[in-house]
Task: inverse folding
C-alpha cells in the first residue's frame, strides 16, 4: 500500500501537535496520496478501513485527562440541578393542591409503612378552627415561638441550637421551624443528613410562598407524627383519651404537645421518664394550666425540640453542661 510506503512522510512535530490544520505540507500530501490510492483500489475490490499511521494518532496528555474529569463533574452537577428542579416543581404543584385539599397520605407515612412495616392509621385532618386556641398557643410556644414572624426559617433558632449542640457534644437540636417540620412530614424522611436539611429549607420556603400561615399550622395539626403509625392530633386524642381534642383538659393537651419530641418511644403517661419531654411538659403546664401554675415555677424560655431521629435519651438542654 502507498500509505505504508509514505509512512516516513508523517513526521512528529516538536510541539507534539498533530491537528489537521497544523500538518506540514508533506504530511498533507502523504495523506492525500494514501486516500487516492485507497479510493482507486475500492473501485476494483473491497478493501479494509483506512487506519492512520501511528504518527497521526492522538497522544494522551494531562490536559486531556483533566478535561475529562471536568466534563464528568459538569454532567454530575447538571443531573443534580435537574433532579432538584424536578423536586421543586413536584412539591410546588402538590403544595398548591394542598391549599384547598387535604393530602391523602404523606412521604413520612409511606416511609414508616414500607421501611418499618408499621400499620398506619388514617389521619384525621381537621380545620384549624376546631383546634382550641390554647392548644395552638402551646404548640407555637415549644416548637416555634416566631412562627407568625419568620418566612419559614429562623436563623436565631439555628444559632441557639448550634450553641446547645456544642455544649452537649452531639447534633441533638436542629432549629427547625414549624414550617420546616411540615415540609419534612409531607415530602421528606426523618434521616439526619445535610441533603435532607437543604431540601427541607427549600420546601419550607415554598410552603411559605404558596400557603398562608394558618394553613401551614392546620397541616401540622393534621399530619404531624404523634405515635407509632399515628398521625395528627385528632388521631392522637382518640388514641390516648378516646375523645376529640376540643374535649381535652389543659393537662392532657400539654402532654400531647410535649410528646412531639419523641412520640415513638413514649406516650402521654410515660413522658416523665425522659428529661426533654419532662421539661417541655413542665413548661407548658406552668404557662397554660392554671391549676398547676402555683406548684410549678414558670420557665424563662421554652425548651428546644430535638431533631427527628435524635437520641432523646440524653440530658435536656437545661441540664446540659454550662459553656466555658
Result:
Amino acid at each position: 500500500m502507498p500509505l505504508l510506503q509514505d509512512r516516513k512522510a508523517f513526521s512528529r512535530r516538536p510541539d507534539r501537535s498533530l491537528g489537521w490544520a497544523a500538518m506540514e505540507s508533506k504530511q498533507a500530501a502523504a495523506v492525500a496520496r494514501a486516500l487516492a490510492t485507497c479510493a482507486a483500489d475500492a473501485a476494483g475490490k473491497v478493501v479494509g478501513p483506512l487506519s492512520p499511521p501511528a504518527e497521526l494518532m492522538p497522544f494522551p496528555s494531562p490536559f486531556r485527562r483533566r478535561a475529562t474529569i471536568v466534563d464528568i463533574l459538569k454532567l454530575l452537577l447538571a443531573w443534580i440541578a435537574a433532579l432538584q428542579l424536578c423536586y421543586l416543581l413536584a412539591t410546588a404543584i402538590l403544595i398548591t393542591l394542598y391549599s384547598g385539599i387535604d393530602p391523602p397520605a404523606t412521604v413520612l407515612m409511606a416511609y414508616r409503612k414500607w421501611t418499618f412495616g408499621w400499620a398506619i392509621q388514617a389521619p384525621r385532618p381537621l380545620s384549624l378552627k376546631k383546634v382550641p386556641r390554647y392548644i395552638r398557643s402551646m404548640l407555637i410556644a415549644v416548637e416555634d415561638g416566631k412562627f407568625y414572624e419568620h418566612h419559614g426559617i429562623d436563623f436565631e433558632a439555628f444559632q441557639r441550637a448550634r450553641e446547645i449542640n456544642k455544649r452537649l457534644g452531639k447534633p441533638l437540636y436542629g432549629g427547625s421551624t414549624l414550617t420546616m417540620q411540615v415540609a419534612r412530614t409531607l415530602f421528606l424522611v426523618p434521616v439526619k443528613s445535610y441533603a435532607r436539611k437543604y431540601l427541607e429549607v427549600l420546601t419550607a420556603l415554598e410552603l411559605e410562598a404558596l400557603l398562608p400561615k394558618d394553613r401551614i399550622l392546620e397541616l401540622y395539626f393534621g399530619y404531624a407524627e404523634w405515635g407509632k403509625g399515628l398521625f395528627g392530633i385528632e388521631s392522637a386524642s382518640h388514641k390516648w383519651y378516646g375523645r376529640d381534642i376540643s374535649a381535652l383538659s389543659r393537662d392532657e393537651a400539654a402532654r400531647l404537645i410535649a410528646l412531639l419530641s419523641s412520640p415513638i418511644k413514649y406516650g402521654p403517661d410515660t413522658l416523665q421518664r425522659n428529661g426533654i419531654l419532662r421539661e417541655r411538659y413542665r413548661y407548658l403546664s406552668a404557662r397554660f394550666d392554671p391549676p398547676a401554675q402555683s406548684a410549678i415555677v414558670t420557665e424563662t424560655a421554652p425548651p428546644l425540640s430535638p431533631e427527628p431521629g435524635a437520641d432523646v435519651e440524653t440530658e435536656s438542654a437545661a441540664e446540659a453542661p454550662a459553656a466555658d
